[in-house]
Amino acid sequence: MAHGNGTPAYVDGVTEADGRHAAENRVRGQHQPQPNVRRASSLMQAVSGDEELQQPVHHPPTVKTFQNEGCSASMRILMRWFFSWPIGGERGRLLTRVVLCILAWAALATVTGSSALPGRDGFLFGISVVIAAAALGGYFVRLLHLPPLLGMLLAGFLVRNVSIVDVPASALVAATSNSTKSALANVTITMSTVATTIANISTTAAVASATPTSLTSNLRTSWSSALRSVALVIILTRAGLGLDPSVLKRAKFVILRLAFLPCLVEATMDAVLANVILGFPWAWGFILGFVIAAVSPAVVVPSLLGLQERGYGIAKGIPTLIIAAASFDDVIAISGFGIALGLVFSTGSSLGFNIARGPLELIAGIGGGSLVGVVAWYIPSIDKSGGHRYRNRVLFLLLGGITAVFGTRLVHFTGAGALGSLVMAFVAGRGWPDADRKQVARAFALMWHFAQPMLFGLIGAEIDVATLGKSFVGKAIGILWVGMFFRVVISALSVARYDLTVKEKVFVALAWLPKATVQAAIGSVALDTATTQGGTPEQIELGKMVLTIAVLVIVFTAPVGSIAISLSGPRLLVQGHSNSLSGTDEERVDGDGGARVRQEGDDEEQHVNATNVSANIQESAV
């Protein structure tokens, strides 16, 4: 409505047209305040302290920045980002990681003393350096939009293989003592010169007695293995809580095919090639084959959980399918390795028991994990635990998983521990309310944030380039890639009859590439057995060759497999939010059509509401 002079009518300072448009925008959820109002609102919030005044935002350079701007320009961008103020965003997270690493080492040093200090007795110092370097390496690699575990593996590898000068403490003490005595005993310039010379001679003697070493030369294998196992328990428990029971029920035979066939075929091919090319005896060939064939849950599971959290592949349960099969795969590989090792060395166990070890480990892992998981339904009690219930459940699963992994090692059923942790978390989660299960899963996700650099950093630290200087490395790499080729082909054929597209089958085959955890755990077992049981020089040499090839497996497959999963997942998998495998294509199309109809109905309803509100405003204006 307008006045006779053509000016618009105002109602409480708002024109009729503005009021109508504002009402329609509010109904559609798209209301945007006018620029003047927005600036005034921002200023009032800043003055009142509700909102900080905006500061110039500097973003860290990425790979695309280096490609587009060049190295020098990218370095200037990096320096401007690093030294800009105030500290926040990526720099704030980086500074937080550095400070936390320093505080953790300081606390460890004050509690344990020399064990956490640099030196030949400081085995905890070596562990601290590896974990801190892995955390920073993962952070910087994530800035390049690559999997963080790649940077963690690389950091552990560099810490292990970068040599430093190790000066014996006794030599340094002697050098310091001589320098101090000479300086105190001589006052004249001439005698001071002599004292300086003596100090230099003493220091030179100390340096001469030094030997090149690495920061992890004093890293105890038992500590490294124990920490890796604890981190593995955390990620397997987290994976068990996220398994989809409908997928397991529908795809149980596919899971068994995917677990058995690729592992057995690759181990057999590696054994044949090792016998033909490297001259391995058949038993040693299968020892090598099963060491190579085991897939790494430590690499596969985190990568798949990352895709699952973003919704990739969950409509057909692909993450659940691969995670479940990976646990069975490790049991099969470790059991086959034990059988072949028993054929070479007399370990006190009969051949029949070694052959039956695989099925027994499967039964022990599934049965024991299911039993403890059912117990977790009733302990802690819902009535008596109150708000502390979910924390008690976190502790229950963590301690149960650690007991399973380390307890099965004591009875030489190594493969059952990891499977038991996965099954225990899965069964326990099925009996809890969804809210409790999600709370427990979030707690393990937080623990994994700290356990991830510990796991992958220590795996990277297991790689020693000194063991790779052998003439057969080229042949070993050839054997490795031929076996991997057969593994990829058999993995794709194992899911050929499953309801997957060609792209999804390719992804499953690529997800079956990474190897690290089992190779780091059992790669040296044959050599250790040959050494401790007085094996022949030929057996000791074969054990060294197996260890070398195990190191090569980690070097080539862990980063390649991780990158393949992370980069191919968004391209090969369909992003969705349905965990159900039921329903035909027509039903899914009908569901989408129904969603579109509902959306159109909602839009029409919003339009009617907007019209009604506009009419009310017009009446009020009149």
Describe the structure.
The structure is a single chain. Helices cover 75% and strands 2% of the residues. The longest helix has 37 residues. It has a two-stranded antiparallel ribbon. A two-stranded antiparallel ribbon has the order 3-4. Strand 1 and strand 2 form a beta hairpin. The radius of gyration is 32 Å and the shape is globular. By secondary structure, it is an all-alpha fold.
Order of helices and strands: EEHHHHHHHEHHEHHHHHHHHHHHHHHHHH
Mean pLDDT: 74
Helix content range of the residues, please? over 70%
How many helix segments?
26
Low-confidence stretches: 1-14, 29-57, 167-210, 578-622
Task: Please state the CA-atom Rg, rounded to the nearest Å.
Answer: 32 Å
Which structural class do you get from the secondary structure elements? mainly alpha
The span between the termini is: 7 Å
Largest sheet: 2 strands, antiparallel
The strand count comes to: 4
The global form is globular
The neighbouring-strand order within the major sheet is 1-2
What are the SSEs and their pairings?
Elements: E1 10-11, E2 14-15, H1 16-27, H2 35-48, H3 63-69, H4 71-83, H5 89-112, H6 123-143, H7 148-161, E3 163-166, H8 169-185, H9 189-208, E4 211-214, H10 221-241, H11 245-250, H12 252-278, H13 282-293, H14 297-309, H15 318-344, H16 351-378, H17 382-385, H18 389-410, H19 414-430, H20 434-460, H21 473-494, H22 502-511, H23 517-522, H24 525-532, H25 537-572, H26 585-621
Antiparallel strand pairs: 1-2, 3-4
Helix pairs in contact: 1-26, 3-4, 5-6, 6-7, 6-20, 7-20, 8-9, 10-14, 10-18, 10-19, 10-20, 12-13, 12-15, 12-21, 13-15, 13-25, 14-15, 14-25, 15-16, 15-19, 16-18, 16-19, 18-19, 18-20, 21-22, 21-25, 22-25, 24-25
